[in-house]
Amino acid sequence: MKFAAHKAALNDTLSRLMGVVERTNVLPILSNISLETGTDKLRLVSTDMDMEVSEWIDARIAEPGSVTVPAATLHDITKKMATDLIDFTLRDYRMNIKGGQAKFALGTLPSSDFPLFKTDAGPACTVTLDSEELRQLIDRTKGAISSEESRYILGGVHIHAIPDNETCFRAAATDGHRLARTDAVAREIEGTLNPCIIPRKALTEIRRIVDKPQGEVRLTFRENTVTLECANVTLKSKLIDGVFPDYERVIPQTAANHVFTIATVPFRQAVERVGSVASKTSAIKMSFGKEALALACRSDGGDFAEAEDEIPVTGAGKIECGFNAAYLAEMTSHFPGEFTLELIDPQSPARITGKDDPTYLYILMPMRV
Question: Does a structural domain hold residue 231?
Answer without folding.
Answer: yes
